[in-house]
Task: structure prediction
Amino acid sequence: MTKKTAAEKAVPAVTKPRAVRPSATRVTSARHSKPAVSSDSVVTESQAVIDTPQENPQQAIANIAYGYWEARGYQDGNSADDWFRAESEYHQRLAAL
Result:
């Protein structure tokens, strides 16, 4: 192994300059799929479905029925009962509008 001379020790090794990455643009706003809710009022999923006009009432009823199943903790139950209850709620809310 060869020894470095004093001159070699005094000069630091030349390093290659690092590549500069362009800074990423930061997203300052986001669109949320659910409406903002104040702490005074609580909106359930089924209410949000009815408040906005739906072109397909069957899909709106299905979303309400799914909410009932979700509220039960995804436990077994009678899906027909959930559907009939959802239909009833859907029609009551349409009448109230």
